[in-house]
Amino acid sequence: MPGTPPEDLRAKRRLALVGGSLGNLVEWYDWFVYASFAIYFADSFFPGDNPTTQLMNTAGIFAVGFLMRPVGGWVLGRAADRHGRKSALTLTVTMMSVAALLIALAPTYDRAGYLGAVVLLLARLLQGMSIGGEYAASATYLTEASARNRRGLGSSFQYVSMTCGQILGLGILITMQHTLTTAQLESWGWRIPFVLGALFALVVFWLRRRLTETDAFTEETGEGGREADSRGTMKALWQHRRQAGLVMALTLGGTVAYYTYTTYLTKYLIGSAGMAKTAATLVSFTALTVFAVLQPFAGMLSDRIGRRPLLITFAVGCTVGTYPIMTALGSASSYWSALGLSLLALVIITGYTSINAAVKAELFPTRVRALGVALPYAIANALFGGTAEYVALWFKNSGHETMFFWYVSGCAMISLVTYVLMPDTRNAALSRAEAEAAAERDPDPAAAPVEALR
To answer: Alpha-carbon distance 197 to 137, whole Å?
Structure first.
C-alpha cells in the first residue's frame, strides 16, 4: 500500500496470513473430523449389520452438507463483496462452532431413534453453508492480502491450513486410538473432537476480529468506488459468466481427486486393502503432513513460471495415474507401500491444490471476486467433491469398485481440457493500484493486464 512503511506492510501481511490460515484450519478441522471419526460413530446413528451400508449413510449426510455450499457461497460471498472479507470470515467461523456443538450433543439411535440422525443432518447443513462461504472468503482474502509477485505463495496457505485441519483431526484420532478402547471410542470418545472444534473456533473468532480489511476491497468501497450497488450481486456475476464457468470446470477434476485421496483414503485402505484402522489412519496422517509442506513450494513455483503448467501437470498425472495408483493401494500389504502410493497421488494433486485459490480469485474484479469464487466453486463441489466418497462406496457395494477409478480419471480429463484452453492468470491486477503500478513500469496496455478494472 503506497505510503505504508515496509515493516508495517510486512507485519500486516503476516497477520493476514496467520488470521486467514488459522481460521481456515479450524473450519476444515470441523468439516473433515466428521469423515475421520465416521468409522466410530456410524452405527450410533444408523443401526444394522452391514458396515458399508452404515458408512454410506454417514457419507450421504457428508454429501448433503455439500448441497448447502452453493447457498453459503451465494449468501456469504455476497456479504464478503458488500461488507468486507473480514466480516464474512468472522461469520463463517461462528457458524462452524455452532455446528460442531450440535454434533457433539446429538443423541444416538438407542436413545432417541432417528432424531440423532436429524440433528447430525442439520449440523452438516450448517457446516456446509459455513464452508461454502469460508472457501471464497479465505481464498479472496489470502490472495488480495499478498504481494502481487507472491500471490501463489500466499494463496497456497489455504490448502496448507485446510490440510493441517485434517492433520489435527487425524492426530487427535490417533491419540484417542492409543488411549481409549474401541468400545469407548464408539460409545462416547468420538464426541470429544467436536467439542474441541467448537473451542478452537472461539479462539479464531477473537483472532479474526483483529484482522484488517484488504487494500483491494477498501479501494473498491472508498471514495470513488465503482458501481457500489452492484457489488456481490448475481447481475454483476452474470457479466463474468465465462469466468464462473471456468471456475466450475477447473474445480471438477481437482475436487474429486482431493476428496478421493484425503477423506476417502482411510476408508479405502480399511475396507479394500484390509489394513487395520490404526495403520490406515497413520498412513493418512503422514501423507497429509508431507502434502501440507509441499503447498508453499508449489505456490512459489507458480509465481515464477505461471499457474497453467502446474494445473496441466496435475490433470495429466491424475488422468493417467489414478487407476494404477488406486489399484495398487487396494492391494497394499504394508504401511510403507501404502504411504508411498498415497504420497505419489498427493504430489500430483499439489499442482491443483497449491494454486487453485489464486487462479480463481485472479479471474474476477474486486466487486464480485468473493461471489465469483464462491458460487461456481460450491456448485462444482456439491456435485462432484461432496459425492466422491459416496460414489466410491456405491461402486464398491455394487461390486464394481474399479469403475470409480475411471470416474476420477474422467473428471480430471475434463479439467485438463480447461487448463489447456484457459489463459494464465499470474499477471492479473487485483486492484487499481496494482494496475497503475504495472502501467508505470510498462506503458504498453497489452503488457500490463488490468483485470481488476473490467
So the answer is: 20
148-166 residue pLDDT tens = 888 999 889 888 988 888 8
One-letter identity of residue 141: Y
Cα(312)–Cα(271) distance, integer angstroms: 32
Q: How far apart are the first and last CA of the chain?
A: 21
Q: How far apart are CA 158 and CA 296, in angstroms?
A: 10
Residue 190 burial (C-beta neighbours within 10 Å; 0-12, 13-18, 19+) = buried
Q: Are 278 and 329 in contact (CB under 8 A)?
A: no
Three cell numbers at 26? Answer: 479450524
In whole angstroms, give the CA distance from residue 11 to residue 7: 6
Residues 167 and 425: their CA atoms lie apart, in Å, by 31
Contact 208, 93 (CB under 8 A): yes
| Predicted pLDDT of residue 453 | 41
Which one, of 454, 389, 372, lies nearest residue 135 by Cα? Answer: 372
Query: 326: closest CA among 257, 237, 228?
Result: 257
Residue with cell 454429501: 63
Q: Residue 115: is its pLDDT beyond 50?
A: yes
Provide the 3-class DSSP secondary structure of residue 188: coil
Selection from 258, 237, 16, 300 nearest residue 140 by Cα: 16
Grid cell listed for 102:
450440535
Sign of CA dihedral 162, 163, 167, 169: positive
DSSP 248-313: HHHHHHHHHHHHHHTTTHHHHHHHTS---HHHHHHHHHHHHHHHHHHHHHHHHHHHHH-SHHHHHH
